[in-house]
Design goal:
alpha+beta, two-stranded antiparallel sheet, globular
Length: 182
């Protein structure tokens, strides 16, 4: 990213609480509200205008999910990374660590997961990884992690939107069904 564009973005350092990897995430300063094209009629999910070629604007959904570059732990909740207020118990930590190999396999299909902004196919994979992590946490402790079920539905709807952008109607239906079943 060029120095002239850095004024429009800020970086945030994250440390993964499951593998201790550190990574930087670039974000656009919060001016995206003016870039909303419309809201989805049923689910109130924002449809953003296209990213501008000068990288002055980035569709937030493309970079919403933070993905650890080492173990591929993924979430849109900053508190779930090291230093956050979330305090996982030992069973949750073991479950997330045990699933690292399968998450890395999923992540390997998207070479641009750490890019800013991500391409649409990479964003779809980030939502898939988010679903994987949220489902794992929910399955370990449904009562303690009830919010994770809502995240699964949220990620599935957003993955459906990515599939729609890619012109894959069969995948759109699959993601929507997944959202309804969560």
């Amino acid at each position: 990213m060029s120095d002239t564009r850095k004024g429009f973005f800020y970086s945030k350092e994250f440390a993964c609480r499951f593998c201790s990897a550190t990574f930087t995430v670039w974000r656009l300063y919060p001016t995206t509200r003016t870039q909303i094209e419309r809201l989805d009629e049923y689910f109130d999910i924002a449809y953003y205008k296209s990213s501008d070629p000068n990288a002055m604007f980035c569709d937030y959904m493309l970079v919403e999910v933070r993905v650890c570059p080492d173990c591929a732990f993924s979430t849109n909740d900053d508190t779930q990374f090291a230093g956050g207020s979330w305090d996982p118990d030992s069973h949750e930590i073991e479950a997330i660590r045990a699933q690292a190999v399968s998450r890395r396999k999923i992540a390997s299909t998207a070479p641009g997961l750490q890019a800013f902004p991500r391409e649409v196919p990479d964003a779809e994979v980030s939502f898939k990884l988010g679903i994987h992590c949220a489902t794992t946490l929910y399955n370990v402790s449904p009562r303690r992690n009830a919010i994770e079920l809502a995240r699964v539905g949220n990620y599935a709807l957003k993955a459906a939107m990515m599939s729609e952008r890619l012109g894959q109607p069969e995948r759109v239906d699959t993601w929507r069904r997944a959202a309804l079943e969560s």
